[in-house]
Amino acid sequence: MLRPILLLTLLCVALRPQPVEACGYSPWSEDSESPQSALRALMLERLPLLSPSWHSEYWVIAWARLEGKEFSQEEVDSLMAQSWLEPSASLAASLEEWSQTRARSSRETGVVDTGAVEVRRRGPNYTYILMCGPDGFRVAAETLRARRQTQSRHEVRRWLTAQDRVFAACAEPNAPEPDEALPGVSEVEAHDRAYQRAVWADHTGHAEAFARYQAIARSSSPWADLARYRSVRLRLAGSPEQTQILAEAIRQTSDAKALRGLRQLQDRYQLFPQGPATSVRTLSARLLAEDLGADLPRTLRDIVHFAKRMDACTTVVSSLVDCETPSEDQLLATMRRAPENVRWAGSSSLLALNAAFHSARASLAAGRRSAAQRYARRAHRLASSSTRASQNAAHAMMVMSGASALNHLLRASESPESRGVLHADGRAWLAGGTVREWQELARRSPELAATIDAHILVRSVLLGAWGRALRYARRLSNGDSAFGRSLQVALASPAAERRGLLLLAVAHHDPTELSITDAFGSHWGTTQVAGCDLGECMDAHPHQTAYAPTFVRSPSTERRRLGARRIDDLGEAVLAHVARHPGSSLNEELLHHFVRLTRRASIHGRTSPRTGELSHAAFDHLHANYENGAWAQRTRHWFR
Amino acid sequence: MRLPTSLAIVLFVVAPALAQESRDVTLWLWHGSHDLRGFAPANGEHVSVAYLSRTLIIEVDGVHVTPRRDPIFLDSDMVRTAVVHMEIGRGVDASILRRERAAILRALTPVFSEEAHGIQFDFDAPRSMRREYETLLQEIAEAKPERWTFSMTALGSWCTESDWLAATPVDFVVPMLFGPGHDRHETLAALERGPLRQPRCRDALGLREHQRPPAHYAATFFVFGQGSWNNARARAALESVAYSSSSRVTPPR
User: What angle do CA B140, B145, B147 make, to 5 degrees?
Assistant: First the structure.
């Protein structure tokens, strides 16, 4: 009897499904000035937990990794060489490459003044839209170099004339159309011209653009794959009602594999309604062109996958606008009323999953943490019987909503490679954490304990929570560091001086790098978190996604009392202390060290408009009241 | 027709009160989307906008241009000024600014075809670059559409301590009274004592939203918002800068 049970057990163990690691929790320490190493790690090493505010290209690579793609060294090198991490430099470089290649190709034309090439189209309402990105100029330069090797001078000149018109259409919708290929020209020239005319039509918004691309996609043209990608992109960037158009576009390829991919695409597209326009515009065309040769459906999945990451608030149903968060029932009811949703959605559970995702994302965007966690957990349950992509997305949603953030962070910090480092998401999570959460994290991760204790001490000093400040000062005073010794002095001093000495210890030693970063140090995790930082939002860059909160937290009362920059909090605390204790012998030194910290903050761009005012006020107070003192003489400037 | 004496006396008494309601405000529309459609100024109010058209960053390797990406919604009759904000990157000196003047002008060419009535240049020029900046301003003045107004922003110290603005070809200067490093305190103190030393700085004043101008100061007030402008916030901004003056100076439009 035992033997069958044992055999059955062994069989179950052998056949049990391997756990699917959707996103590997591999934190790494990242030099703040080197995003390239983060990219290399992303391609070669274990996947980290990604920040939603990263460049969309990172998501391309992450998704490829999740799908099992192994990047060869050649691919890594080529992607690393592509400076799309710094898009403005990339555009300038690609323009320069195009200009130089063009100049070498034709005696009649000189070097194109790259400064005169306008790649943006004036959009509505004072906006400008990037029409021609770096890839377009690089592809043109590569093509021209290739044609020079194989074609006659006249053919090259005709190609160049047509290409000039294509690029003229970047900014000018009325730019002249490239001429049709002459009868009897070579097949290559005919294919090239057809593609140039299609791109011109795309740039100028000509109605025939899609048809031209499709004709190329069906032919034996070397541009077929790229034309197919651009045709899909054209449609996805257009009107919201994409499903039928997309189906037609893919059906025309007569590709059975693509048709299967379409059904999968509809699955995902339904889950993550609309919004791929932004992501499509920023995706690396080169990377996708390579993928297109292999797997169109997968590439289209990429597009949709990014869509769900890119838009903080999307909707496929026109009645849901402006990031309003309807109830899930309302959402389901509205979606069921839209016949196209029901027709190809296939099941009510899919609609429910869709609704849960949408509600979770809308709640995240609106900062409603409890609602986001509730919807994320629901999506996670519903996704368990859905595709892996849905499960991955639900998992990510759980993390983003904070439903399982602490566990993920701890797992990240327990990795033997981590050595106590955290990735960007962890840093962002911790920055908004409550002291209780910090204490829990310190208890479970001894490597982080010292740093977290320092943060708790600093926060307590800034908030005037002196009881807690003293407790943590005792804990940290055991060390042999200068900061520890300062704390020993403070603890050994009379009560009347203790607070001032703690404040001085914080200002003098800056144990948590107050002025450099506002979180757990620039050496922790990546620095790819762009966009909003503790309430201050930067303008979205074309190649960066709009900010979505990495973690939604219940608002910490303490955090609310603190300002956007801890350097400002320190300034307020110092000035308040000095005002309350005008006769204290610590005041000069306090004021000096604060002003010194504002210099560091200024250098590293970690100031707010208030910082300069505080620095100036401290400077003025120091010189007005302690004019002849040594500290005043050492404080010759204030900073903003 | 001669006014009756009593009526004239009434008008003489009432007129200053009427003048108190006059407001000349320009809203700076910076990053983000702004919607001021349907904004209806009250009697005596002149409201216009100065929108950020593009940002130029002068780096060692050239001029990096970032045009506006966020839409602005205005009524067609709203007077508007296109603002160009310029910064310099690390390592850029006067020689690089000189080298890139042509590229800067080229970057401004699309601005001149926008639907605007003027251009404003916003650049905190270091002292070492003032001469080059003056030359650039001269070239902009020559390149802009003839009927456009031309203004520039200024640090407070430019208006209180030095005379270098006297040679600039702008129609008026907007000293900024907000933000660190803009010599706000010194400028405010100077305003308390009387008109700013530099005459070109007396026609306008740059404020932050909710910041009240010095009492009895007559100028066009440029207001920098702390977010996206809408009609309600614009109305509140106008209330903040209400002033009284018996000799109001009207900058060119």
Answer: 115
| Buried b / exposed e along A561-579 (16+ C-beta atoms within 10 A) | ebbbbbbbbbbbbbbebbe
ipTM: 0.78
N- to C-terminal Cα distance for chain B?
33
Which chain B residue has the Cα nearest residue A614? B180
* CA-angle at A314, arms to A309 and A316, nearest 5°: 125
Interchain CB distance below 8 Å, B70 and A640: no
Smallest CA–CA distance from B57 into chain A, residue: A88
Q: Which residues contact A136 (CB under 8 A, 6 or more apart)?
A: A94, A167, A199, A285
Q: What does the pLDDT look like over A141-156, one tens digit per residue?
A: 888 888 888 888 889 9
A612 to B179: CB separation less than 8 angstroms, yes or no = yes
**Chain B, nearest residue to A616 by Cα:** B180
Backbone angles phi, psi at B53, to 5 degrees: -85, -45
Amino acid at A243: T
pTM: 0.48
Burial letters B66-82, b for 16+ CB under 10 A, else e: bbbbbebebeeebbbbb
Beta carbons within 10 angstroms of residue A12's beta carbon: 9
Contact A615 B180 (CB under 8 A): yes
Report the distance separating Cα A532 and Cα A529, nearest Å.
Answer: 8
Which amino acid would we find at residue B105? L
Measured distance CA(A214)–CA(B189) in Å, rounded: 69
Contact A92 B64 (CB under 8 A): yes
B-chain CB neighbours of A539 within 8 Å are 31-32, 69-70
Q: Do A92 and B114 touch (CB under 8 A)?
A: no
How high is the pLDDT of residue B100?
Answer: 93
Please check whether residue A539 touches B, CB under 8 A. Answer: yes
On the CB side of A404, CA atoms within 13 Å amount to 14
Task: Give the mean model confidence (pLDDT) for residues B17-25.
Answer: 58
Lowest mean pLDDT across A144-148, A257-261, B33-37: A257-261
User: Is the separation of the CB atoms in B168 and B174 below 8 Å?
Assistant: no
